[in-house]
Amino acid sequence: MFYAKAMRACGPRGFYAIWGHHGRHGFGGRHGSGERGSRRRVFDSGELRLVLLKLIEEMPRHGYDLIREIEDRTSGAYAPSPGVVYPTLTLLHDMDLIEEEKSEGARKRYAITQSGAVHLTEKTEEVEAAMAKLAEMGAHRERTEGAPIRRAMGNLRQVLQHRLVRDDVTPETLHEVAALLDEVSQKIERL
Fold first, then answer.
1. Which of 1, 11, 41, 123 has its CA at a distance of 20 to 30 angstroms from the CA of residue 112?
2. Cα angle at 36 between 34 and 42, to 5 degrees?
3. What is the pTM of this model?
4. Can you tell me the distance from the alpha carbon of 167 to that of 75, in angstroms, rounded to the nearest whole number?
């Protein structure tokens, strides 16, 4: 009953955004675009090769380590999929830009080769631009999804959950809540 009322009052997008069901990690989704499952391409294949090679130059890494490092540097805004990273590592290995290093366990750890270091030197400007893109994504994520905003969104979610599940919720109450949320959204948009 409650869900039907809320859906009519807020519409499907508003309802799911309020309750955090529209993104894997609550408000805003994992990929920083605000849309669930959006998989916009952050890097073209050449840029990703350079990013992975640069990170391997910094220290030998496993594929999983590379994914986590990129996710950390973007403050969670972007994490390349294993389906992109591992074939790219294979390509870098085939190009003799990285080599497999002995490591414990089943994971392959890669180190940069002399050819890889020369390649990075030849592509310095492109490497710097790709790494700057990572840093900017992280800075943007920090600005837009900082701790105070996450806390306030959590508070809003709690209040809505507690208030809107009560038996005395009327369609008018739902419309008033939707109007308040719209008003706040407009004010934030004008900042």
1. 41
2. 70
3. 0.57
4. 41
Residues 8-31 have pLDDT tens digits of: 444 544 444 444 433 333 333 343
Q: What is the largest CA-CA distance in the chain?
A: 71
DSSP the chain: -HHHHHHHHHHHHHHHHHHT-SSTTSTT-SSSSSSTT----SS-HHHHHHHHHHHHHHS-EEHHHHHHHHHHHTTTS----HHHHHHHHHHHHHTTSEEEE--SSS--EEEE-HHHHHHHHHTHHHHHHHHHHHHHHHHHHHHHS-HHHHHHHHHHHHHHHHHHTSTT--HHHHHHHHHHHHHHHHHHHH-
Average pLDDT value for residue range 60-71: 93
Is the model's pLDDT at 136 over the cut of 80?
Answer: yes
Sign of CA dihedral 122, 123, 128, 131: negative
State the number of CA atoms in the 13 A half-sphere of 86 facing the CB: 6
